[in-house]
Structure prediction request, 504 residues.
Amino acid sequence: MSNQKKLILIADDDADYLFQLESMVKTLGFEVITADGQQNAEQLLEKVKPDLAIFDLMMETEDSGFLLAYKARKKYPEMPIIIASAATAETGYSFDMHNNHDSDWIKADLYLEKGIRSDQLHREINKLLKL
Amino acid sequence: MATLQVLVVDDEPGIRSGINRILASYTVGFPFMEEDFEFSLIDAATGEEAIEILNNQPIDIVLLDNKLPGMDGMEVLAYIKNQKFDLDVMMITSYASLELAIKATRDGAYNFMPKPFTPQELRSSIDNVSKHLYLKRMTRKMQEEGKQIRFQFLSVMSHELKSPINAVEGYLKMMQEKQFGDKVDDYDKMIDRSLARLRGMRNLIMDLLDLTKIESGKKQRKLRDTNLSDIAQMAMDTMEPYAIQRSVRMKLSVIGSSMLLSDPDEMEIVFNNLISNAVKYNIDGGKVNVSIEDNRNEIIIKVTDTGIGISKEDQEQIFEDFVRIKNNQTKEITGSGLGLSITKKMLAQYNGTIEVSSVADEGTTFTVKIPKQ
Prediction:
């Protein structure tokens, strides 16, 4: 492991959740940059290359997270991507229900339910970063 | 022009070629159909042959003789019913007994045509069966779309309800773990945000209740002569505290009579939504003008703000359920994304309309027109 802190990009359009996740991830010992939506995240990805990214699913549109993951994967194929959502568990929405966006192009490494505990998140991030 | 595939099952070559000749150049159109139908014909001399064809290509209409050399028409019909093919069957038969007719109808035959038939009889039967098939398919399509819309609504709604729960829960955990210090004061901002999110959630639930009332259509509407200017004033009074905070000035003007036969609760929802939007999406120190105008057969309500404006693309979607315009200027503003969709649905009950016109950074005007009767 290098001495430098790993950089994590978090995109979420819910300002409160973004703040909470940001402080959680910072407490775990990572460097964090935040984006308040898909558009903002795309701009940031032009300038910086994070070590890992966590995207909310529903932002500007209900599948912003997928679109973002698709673009991010194209730009940085080796960057692990986590998609976090508040909607998936109850409804099963967005994954197989979405006819026009087949799951085979959804390039996330992990799907997380929002409200995840800090230790769980830490474990998942470490696994993806091979720390 | 759309093409319907017709399978003619008859052991008499004369009948098959006759039907081919009559239908080859025939088209069917009804005013409610998007396009006319023409017919493409396929022949089968036996029931076995018919089943072979049915299994290998899509068929829309089957013209089925009962008396066939091998398996008879009734057996083919039973097979079709069993396989749940999406098609209509018309029996063509020489001696139709009542017994046979009943059995065939029970097995899903749409109608009967006795042999021999004239070209005109065939054409009018084909008219009927095409219309039936079209309506059957349209009905099913609309039901599926309805289900899809309902499902989407529920998913978005659950998302909108869960987001504030997640946010508040997150803040409570931070406080529980004393992440930012030991004093309550250290968490002022988080408490404020939690309360704001809970307020937003309460509003969403109120909006959902309004929406349910409209959509269930069961709510008893109490129509009476209602002075809209009183209702508008009430809505403005409700917004007053927030408007003062933002230094937004509100003004009401009434031209002519503002009486309308309507349900005051419903009119209140309309004014509340429009006026609260005009204040929320305004600039500090901005203005809100509400006008009610008696224009002979209709009442015209205008709510104008001096706010941030709505782009052309966004204007097209703002009346949809759960649409909120997200940008830098709106991210601090809470809302359920239901207000305008509720307003529009509410007005539709009065055969009223709502339109928006807007210039970026100058302001937005919502214009409501409600016929008096």
About this structure: The radius of gyration of chain B is 32 Å. Chain B has a mean pLDDT of 88. Residues 50 and 56 of chain B are 10 Å apart (CA to CA).
